[in-house]
Amino acid sequence: MAHLSRVIVLIDMDCFYCQVEEKLDPTMAGKPIAVVQYNPWRGGGIIAVNYPARDKGVTRHMRGDEAKRKCPNIVLARVPQVRGKADISKYREAGNKVAEVLQTFTNLLERASVDEAYLDITEAVEKRLNNESHNIDVDKLINTFVVGYADTKEFIRLANNNELFENNVKLAVGGLITEEIRAAVLEKTGYKCSAGVAHNKILAKLVCGLHKPNKQTILPHDSVSILYESLPVTKIKSLGGKFGKTLSEELNITFMSQLAHFSEKQLAQKFDDKTGRWLYNIARGIDNEPVTLRLISKSIGCCKQFPGRTALTATRDVKHWTSELASELSERLAKDQEENNRKGKQIVISFAQNDIHSSRTIPLNSYEQSKIAECALAVIDKFCQRSDGSYSINFLGMSVGNFQEINQKSSITKFFLNMSKKQKISDEKNIQDTESITAIPQKCSEAKEISALEEEPNNQTEDDASDLSIYSRTTEEMEMDSDDLIYYEDICPNSVSSEPIHCFTISSQSSEEMESSRRSSMQSFFAKYFGDKTNETQEEDQQGQTVTVRGPQPEEVSIYI
């Protein structure tokens, strides 16, 4: 069975932010640690807690003062503040070092977040099975647990002595390799991690957290039903939000084991063929989503929340925070371009008014801070500014995506290519002159449009810039699944609220979709697509809270906050 042939691992760094702080300050070793945001109110908001602190009752989202009362000797490490918001660059850099180690074991590495990564080690497992005997040293799996088995010895004994459990041998060898991976991460970076080993990404993710810290769990396919007995439906990826609730209500189920009672036909009738097939398979522990090579983020973004009385109302405040976010984004984009030789082509401007969240996606033509801020302000003014010039903004965010590799051709080569294109257009124009005078205006117009779209953004003249402004480009919806968003919690300064803000990673659209938009972009997207019509829908976030989304059609996109 093909779905049992793969060996997938999820590596999850244990209390990663706390580990990073402990490594930077060795005097913290062995002590209860919590990482708090920069907001001084009641000691700041806790975003990470190590296990000694958890043993004392300290949890995430507590305030620092409350943590001190529960654990007087706790060390509160504060996240640095830059431009009025949290700077998590040291955690990103630490995550990059871990990824470098993981990459030495397989080329199929997919970074899910700063502290998580999926690895497909199937090839390494098969290579080891071909070169060595099936006898597995149990002593090398002392930190390994197996779902549905009394101990690791029983699991390996049955796997070796029964051909029906051949795929379990692969998982056992995968467990050995995973122990080696975790040991290498610890040796080379100083950071401990836990892991889940299974035949697919969803199952590896589910079991990774069963035994922590610094341990790993294997899930054989014959034990999926045991895991599912008490596993809520909402714990499965893609079932944590509105669809998961709808599924539970429609089928009157709570646990994944109950979903297995429905046939594929029944599920397809309730939903659709594709969804029914996926639900039928996942209810049996089957999922074929590949581990996609991704060492770098699909998008780069930053954002800030302004809850309650801190809401932005004045123009100067909106401009200030738009500029601050644009400045951070510009720096990170420049660094990304240097390191990864790519450039983002789309920017998502997200905003919330009275907790109604919306976003707009527009082309990105420049990494300059002023240009990014200008684009963002244009969108914000269009959709957030009241008739009296005031605002009521609770959230601002910017995220750049749809990255494309930068063309390595030299500027001299580009010059001659452009000259060649212009000469070709000129020759075509001259031919048209001899045939029909009336064809000239149309041909010139087409040539001008092609030139404007293909020209490098940084080489625009003032005249060209007007043609490429956001007012003459179409916007596009960006498909966003709450499972694709990666949240970094952040507390706003000078706020009496303990609500976190969220920085996120968003999957970008394909280059084909972007190119299609660019080719049809010479009409005003605000006039053509937005107009004055609005719609209002209700979405549910992953916590089950209803978020009403109001905005122009058809570019409406929900942001889960």
Automatic annotation (TrEMBL):
Residues 8-240 form the UmuC domain. GO terms for biological process: DNA repair; error-prone translesion synthesis; response to UV. InterPro entries: DNA/RNA_pol_sf, DNA_pol_Y-fam_lit_finger_sf, DNA_pol_Y-fam_little_finger, DNA_polymerase_eta, Rev_trsase/Diguanyl_cyclase, UmuC. It holds the Pfam family IMS_C. The keyword Transferase applies. Keywords: DNA damage, DNA repair, Magnesium, Metal-binding, Nucleotidyltransferase, Nucleus, Transferase, Ubl conjugation, Zinc, Zinc-finger. Its EC number is 2.7.7.7. It comes from the Eukaryota. Its cofactor is Mn(2+); Mg(2+). SUPFAM superfamilies: DNA/RNA polymerases, Lesion bypass DNA polymerase (Y-family), little finger domain. It is an enzyme of class 2 (transferase). It catalyses: DNA(n) + a 2'-deoxyribonucleoside 5'-triphosphate = DNA(n+1) + diphosphate. One of its GO terms (cellular component) is nucleus. Belongs to the DNA polymerase type-Y family. This is DNA polymerase eta. It comes from Acanthoscelides obtectus. The lineage of its organism: Eukaryota, Metazoa, Ecdysozoa, Arthropoda, Hexapoda.
